[in-house]
Design brief:
The chain is an alpha/beta fold. The chain has 14 helices and 15 strands. 34% of the residues are buried.
C-alpha cells in the first residue's frame, strides 16, 4: 500500500470519526498521536511486516503535525529563524530567513490537505473563506499574522502568507541589538511614548513597523486606558487596562460591515487615554487628526508609505477621497496642529530592517506641514552579497516639543540631538 494512499485513508477516517479531537483549538498532540496510531492499526489489519516501522512512524508524525499543528509547515512555525512563510499552492513553499526569501522542499499532498490547514487556522476566529468571501486576514494566538486567498482568485491554488510574531523582540534593547535603531533614537522614542507625543509609523509591507509599534507601546504606563483598533488583531499589549477592537467584514449579503472609522468614532466615547490605530486607510485619517487636536494625545498609528513626505500625500489623498469638503491648506493646518512625529522604517537590500528617518512636523512653511529630520540612517555602501553598510546620524535639529518631556517629568539630555 503506497505511503500517500495509506496516509490519505487514515486522514479521511480520522476526520470522519474523531471530530471531537479536532475541535479542540490547542490540539493535544499526545491524544492525537494515540488516536492516529489506533486508526492506522485498524486500517492495516495485517501483519506488522507489511509496513516498515519507520514508515509507520513517519505517517503518524506527519498526521500528528497536520491535526494538532499546521501539517507540513509545522516545523517552519517552530523555527525561530523563519520570519515569514509563503505558501503558493501545494508545491511552492517559500520562507524568509535573515531577510532573504528561500524556496523549501516542503510539499502538500493535495489542495484538500492545504484547505484543511486553512480551516484549522480559521477555526478559533470568526473569519471564513469560501466562494463568497475568498480571502481574509487573521491573527494566530501567538500573534503571527496570516493572509489567506483561495481559488478562483488564486489561480495556482490556495495561498497562505504567514508573518510570524517574534517573541524575541519585546523591548527597545531588542531593537537596538537587531540594529533597527541606535540607543539615542531608542531613548528619544521611548521618551516620546511616555510624554504622549502623537506619532505615525510609516513603511512598506514587511518593513517591521508593526513590530516597532508593539515594542514601543510596551512603555505606555500600565494604568492608562488604552484602546487598540485594528482590521486584524495583531498587537498584544502587556498592560492591564487595554480594550482591543477589531473591524467586522460584511456578511454574505454584503451587510453589517464595521470599519476602522466606525470603531474610531466609538472609541472616542470610551474615555481613552491612549488610542492605537492599527492602520490608517481612509477617512479615519481626518477623525484621528481632529481627535488629536481635541486633547487625545499620545496616539500611535500605522500607515503604508515610503517616506515622511509620502505620509503627507497619503493623508491628503485619504481625506480628499472621503468626500469631506476641506481644502489642502486646512488639511495641513490640521496635520501641523496635531501630529508630532513620523517614524519611517524600511527593509534594506540585505533584508535588514532599519528606522531610516525620525521626522518631526514643525508648524507650517508656506502653507504646508514643515517636515524636519531629527535622526536618519545614512547608507555608506552596499558591499559584497548585498550587505548594507551605514550608520545612524543626528541632524542637529531639536524637537519642537522638547518642553513636553519636562512637563511629564521625563529626563532626556539635549546632547543626543547634537549633529554628528
Amino acid at each position: 500500500m503506497a505511503h500517500q494512499t495509506l496516509k490519505g485513508r487514515v486522514r479521511e477516517d480520522f476526520i470522519a470519526r474523531y471530530s471531537s479531537v479536532l475541535s479542540k483549538n490547542s490540539g493535544n498532540k499526545m491524544e492525537v498521536a494515540a488516536t492516529v496510531r489506533q486508526i492506522l492499526e485498524g486500517i492495516l489489519n495485517q501483519p506488522r511486516s507489511v509496513l516498515k516501522e519507520q514508515d509507520r512512524e513517519t505517517i503518524i508524525n506527519e498526521l500528528v503535525d497536520e491535526f494538532a499543528g499546521f501539517g507540513p509547515i509545522e516545523k517552519l512555525m517552530m523555527d525561530h529563524e523563519v520570519t515569514e512563510i509563503m505558501i503558493n499552492g501545494t508545491h511552492n513553499v517559500y520562507v524568509e530567513k535573515g531577510g532573504k526569501k528561500l524556496m523549501t522542499e516542503i510539499r502538500f499532498d493535495s489542495d484538500q490537505q492545504l484547505m484543511y490547514v486553512i480551516q484549522k487556522i480559521l477555526a478559533p476566529t470568526r473569519r471564513r473563506v469560501d466562494e463568497t468571501q475568498p480571502y481574509t486576514d487573521v491573527c494566530l494566538p501567538d500573534g503571527s499574522r496570516v493572509n489567506i486567498i483561495i481559488p478562483p482568485l488564486a489561480l495556482d491554488g490556495p495561498t497562505i502568507t504567514i508573518r510570524k510574531f517574534l517573541k524575541v523582540i519585546q523591548r527597545a534593547e531588542d531593537l537596538i541589538a537587531l540594529d533597527t535603531l541606535d540607543k539615542r533614537m531608542a531613548d528619544f522614542l521611548v521618551a516620546c511614548i511616555k510624554a504622549k507625543v502623537n506619532m505615525i509609523f510609516a513603511g512598506a509591507t514587511g518593513s517591521g513597523k508593526t513590530t516597532t509599534v508593539g515594542v514601543l507601546s510596551s512603555y505606555i504606563d500600565n494604568d492608562e486606558r488604552t484602546i487598540v483598533i485594528e482590521d486584524t488583531a495583531e498587537l498584544h499589549l502587556a498592560q492591564d487596562h487595554v480594550v482591543r477592537l477589531e473591524t467586522k467584514p460584511p456578511n454574505i449579503e454584503g451587510k453589517g460591515e464595521i470599519s476602522i472609522r466606525d470603531l474610531f468614532k466609538n472609541s472616542l466615547r470610551m474615555r481613552p487615554q491612549r488610542i492605537i490605530l492599527g492602520e490608517i486607510r481612509s477617512a479615519e485619517a481626518l477623525d484621528m487628526l481632529q481627535a488629536m487636536c481635541s486633547g487625545h494625545s499620545g496616539a500611535l498609528s500605522v500607515i503604508h508609505a515610503n517616506s515622511p513626505q509620502e505620509v503627507m500625500h497619503r493623508i491628503e489623498t485619504m481625506i480628499l477621497m472621503s468626500g469631506i469638503p476641506i481644502s489642502l491648506e486646512a488639511i495641513h493646518r490640521q496635520i501641523s496642529a496635531s501630529l508630532n512625529l513620523i517614524i519611517q522604517q524600511d527593509q534594506l537590500a540585505d533584508g535588514g530592517r532599519k528606522i531610516t528617518r525620525v521626522t518631526q512636523i514643525n508648524g507650517l512653511k508656506n502653507g504646508w506641514a514643515n517636515l524636519e529630520d531629527i535622526f536618519y540612517y545614512e547608507i555608506n555602501e552596499v558591499v559584497e552579497h548585498g550587505k548594507v553598510s551605514g550608520r545612524f546620524r543626528a541632524t542637529g535639529v531639536q524637537p519642537s516639543f522638547y518642553s513636553l518631556f519636562a512637563k511629564r517629568g521625563i529626563t532626556l539630555a539635549r546632547e543626543i540631538f547634537n549633529k554628528d
